[in-house]
Amino acid sequence: MDPAPQIRPSWWQCLWGLPFLLVGGGLFVYTLFQGITHSTDSLTQLVVPGHAELNLKGKQTYTVFLEEQSVVNGKVYSTTQSIQGLSCTVTAKQDGSSVGIGKPSENTSYEVNGRSGHSVLDFFIPQDGQYLFACDYGANATGPSVVVAVGSGVGESIMRTLLVSMASLLGSFVACVAVVLIVWAMRERSKKRIRHTAPTQA
User: Fold this and answer.
1) What's the pTM?
2) pLDDT digits (tens, 9 = 90+) for 3-43
3) Same domain for 139 and 117
4) Cross-strand partners of 123
5) Is residue 81 packed enough to be buried (19+ CB in 10 Å), middle (13-18) or exposed (0-12)?
6) Domain span at residue 191?
7) Could you give the number of structural domains in the chain?
8) 128 with 188, same domain?
9) Cβ(86)–Cβ(135) under 8 Å?
10) Residue 153 zone, left/alpha/beta (φ > 0; ψ -120 to 50; rest)
11) Burial level of 63, CB count in 10 A (0-12/13-18/19+)?
């Protein structure tokens, strides 16, 4: 008696989708970790009250972040006191013109590498150049020393990191599902072929 024909491929072939999941999961973790940990690399920290000359690119919006927890030159800063009255200005070094500064268009926050901060101000730079960024409590006011960080593209960097990492994870899942579907389709064709070639009983 001839042995019963086997359906090919075996369901075990679905395991070929496992490497896609492992690679996608690894890319997800790596991309997320690298992107988040380096999202604040472009920020310039400044202890205020104080000022700094910044070389800024034109046609860009810069954001000022207040860092609740921060480390500057080995010194730890923790903002727990009121900073009411703290104001910041941006002035072009070339002609002394003031740059408008106001509330941020979107709320962005971060917590990475021992630093945590949230957006408090935005300003638009019209052209490349040197700019004086300064913050203080006013001529007749005092307040605690705090750390602010100035930079552009932090929110976009965080969002891009999330999108790329999620795309990696989703892509690996889709690839794994595709392997399972291919195996299923090939097994269905194998079943039909076996039924069509099976001898007809008298």
Assistant:
1) 0.75
2) 667 888 888 888 999 999 999 999 999 988 888 888 888 89
3) yes
4) 62, 101
5) exposed
6) 11-35+161-197
7) 2
8) no
9) yes
10) left
11) buried
